[in-house]
Amino acid sequence: MNKRLSSIFRSMAIGGLVATGVARVLILFSASPVPDPASGRTEPSLFAPAISSNWDYITPAQTWLLIMLTGVTLICVVAWPIAAWMERRADAGSLRPASGRHIFGRQDR
Predict the structure, then answer these.
(1) pTM for the whole thing?
(2) Which of 54, 71, 59, 56 is nearest to 26 (CA)?
(3) Which residues cross the membrane (predicted)?
(4) How many CA atoms lie within 13 A of 35 on its CB side?
(5) First-to-last CA distance in the chain?
(6) Which of 1, 6, 10, 97 has its CA 20 to 30 A from that of 75?
(7) Alpha-carbon distance values, 21 to 5, 24, 25, 38, 65 (Å)
(8) pLDDT: is 11 or 40 the higher one?
(9) What is the mean pLDDT of residues 72-96?
(10) Are 23 and 66 in contact (CB under 8 A)?
């Protein structure tokens, strides 16, 4: 069975969103195991104010991983409606009437 290109792009876009979200969460939760000096507890790095102003918690490899995942996801999100539009045009090309004029509501009469 041959899948349509728009279906592949849709699956890749949704999978890319999930993969990027998972990578972000894993990077953030492994960012800073140092306890907060004020409370003595280790807070989740997602809510730490130092992380929002300082990007030293993320390594260059993690940065490139997020850039690549986000880039591929954005490409698939843009390509998905384009591929669907091209497939729809190709499918509609064989159904056009010979006169070139289409009357609304009178397709098969």
Answers:
(1) 0.62
(2) 59
(3) 64-86
(4) 5
(5) 34
(6) 1
(7) 24, 5, 6, 30, 12
(8) 11
(9) 84
(10) yes
